[in-house]
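G., the chain you wanted modeled:
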Amino acid sequence: MALSSLPLLSPLNTTDTDFHPKLLHFNSPSSSSSSHFPVRFPIYHTSHSLAISEKWRAKVSFFPAFLNNKRKDASTIKQELLDAIAPLDRGADATLEDQQTIDQIARKLEAVNPTKNPLKSNLLDGKWELIYTTSQSILQTKRPKLLRSVTNYQAINADTLRAQNMESWPFFNQVTADLTPVNTRKVAVKFDTFKIAGFIPVKAPETARGSLEITYLDEELRVSRGDKGNLFILKMVDPTYRVPV
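Predicted structure as tokens:
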């Protein structure tokens, strides 16, 4: 069944100093005028301490600017990603070149992920709508369009470690699963119950397993990667939704 294949889830540079010992020559009173001896006098420049102060001030002020730039970068990349997937019918109309382009943009977004421990974040909880995937079994591309699911949803509750996949018209199939954390952003998935047409329960086979890594998460968007290499991009639609236990 197509739905079952959707897995859930510097120090300051010391060579740059303004202090330079300078070699000076003086005539010795007890020697001939042609005799010289070297004497080293350190010359201190008052600009040295000011330069250090300015460098430290620059370093300190850099961090807020860096964080702001990171947020702007994520917003820009996210919009680029949404614009790229918009005409692709959730991925059903994507060519190989389209898939490569989407993957590259997604990797840029993953690099600025603001949620480093998604399984510990309440941003993960709720019902998400699938807006792009490379999974052909979920997209059901071998079926006529009239027999394809119009919308797919995935819900996750991190506190109960439960997940649910749902299809809309025309079949309304569902499947629930238990999640086992592998680390703070990856879970092993064991599907337990299918519901045909949303109400006929069928026990999932023992082999119905997978894994999911959450690679980007914010209040609006989630990017995940499955154990078969598929990419999933979802948008939040209901943060209050609870998965049946």
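The chain has three helices and eleven strands.

Shout if anything looks off.
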